[in-house]
Amino acid sequence: MTDVQLSREPDASLKERPPAISLRRYVALLAAVWTGVMILSLAANLCLQYVITIWMIHGVLWLLGLGGIFLAAARLDKSLTRQQRMELELLEANRTLEALIEASPLAIIALDARGCVRLWNPAATSIFGWQASQTVGQQPPFLTDNPQPEFQEIYSRGLQGEPVGGVASCRHRNGITLDISFSMSPLHGSHQGNLDGVMLVLEDITERRRTEEELFKANEELKVWVYEFSHRNKDITLLNEMGDHLQACRTLEEGYAGVSRFASRMFPDLSGTLFMFNAEKHVVEAVAHWGDPQTGAAIFPPDDCWALRTGKEHLVQETGSDSQCGHLTGFTRGYMCVPMIAHGEILGLLTFLKNPQENFPEETLADSKKKLAITAAKQIALSLANLNLRNSLQEQAIRDPLTGLFNRRYMEEMLDREIFRVRRKRAPLGIIMLDLDHFKHFNDTFGHEGGDTLLQALAGLVRRNIRREDIACRYGGEEFIIILPEALLQITADRAELLRQQVQELQVAYQDRPLGPINVSLGVAVFPDHGANGEALIRAADSALYRAKEGGRNRVVVAGAEK
Fold it and tell me: Is the pTM of this model over 0.70?
């Protein structure tokens, strides 16, 4: 076996060659190079994407900016259009407000911050007498000499911007004192809280307040009498029942019938008559009777009765004496006349006459019945005065104060009621709507008072030419409506034509100046042909009236056809 000796020294050829790289290290080196290349590529890619993103964002912002400019321009144009429309609407609203103020029945006065007048409507002139030209720029003349400290205090608070109101006495231009209901409201400027002035709204309540005070006084007096009589005998019980009955009556005729019925129970052994004073004719007229057939005059002058002359009861035990009343001349039995007085005014007379078949002592009339007759006369007078005042208040509520015709609200109520009634009877109902032609010309030429004179004359003509069952109303302004229950179309149209002709013949003067020719246009409609309810019927008549105006005025047009 041969031994092989290994040399310890390295081979010289191996020293001259570079060291060999292992496969593992070579792979690691390639991986490192590839990773570096990928990192550089990724960084470059990210930079490129960042640049592109920045440019895209700038582009979008530019587009958004341009869109915003166009949108703002469009909104600005729309805002300008809306502003113009709002300005037009505001102008129209101001015109409407001015027309309402001019036509208002209430006095409307605008004051500036110093309390001087800057607006004075026609109603203020009508109530207080001063023209607008006499008041603008000055303190309200009806307030300058008002001595009421309570009112002055309220008025001062109102000028400071506090909403206030109440009732006060004010002076008319001619010096008379008026009861006025008023309210004061602040007018603020464009800046919040800046007081620009005060608006005064006033209403003349003189007549209404006087009537209410009289009604209250009558009620108070009646309450006193009822309380005093509540604990007395049978006659007093009848008096209370009669007072309750009279308070429930709606008309004077119902009251007269009630007096007759209760008087026959309170005075069964006497006959009697209720007389009422007619101020227009200045006579006394019999309105109710009980017992035997009426004896004496039914109508006579007040001086024919001693009780009316003296203002107290007049008893006659024996006829034929010098003290016998002229209205009972020829009466041969004892009697007593008792005046009916309420609020210091003589309203009428009660007469009590002995029945011929009754046999009672002469003193019976004087003793047992005299006090009851006097008490009954007082209560009847108060009750009838109360009823008359209630009717007066009701008339004021349903009547137009200028013309005396029914007002629009009452007309609408009555039209619906009459349509309901004629529908059940299967009957027609006619309606005439008439309007003064060229009424503005009369107002412009003769002033509002001249126009009012013309309206009153026309209302009087209408009243004189309607039936008892017809209802004449002032619809508004210079328009009138006449309701003709159970009137056929032809009859309604004929009545309208007759009115038109009579208006042409009407002669009206104001302050000795003739108002000139007067004409009206009329529209006619009939239920149920032209409407099934009141609203539709008025609309049809108004349409016919409009066509009459369009057709030249001074004519009658029937709804659905011209005449």
Answer: no
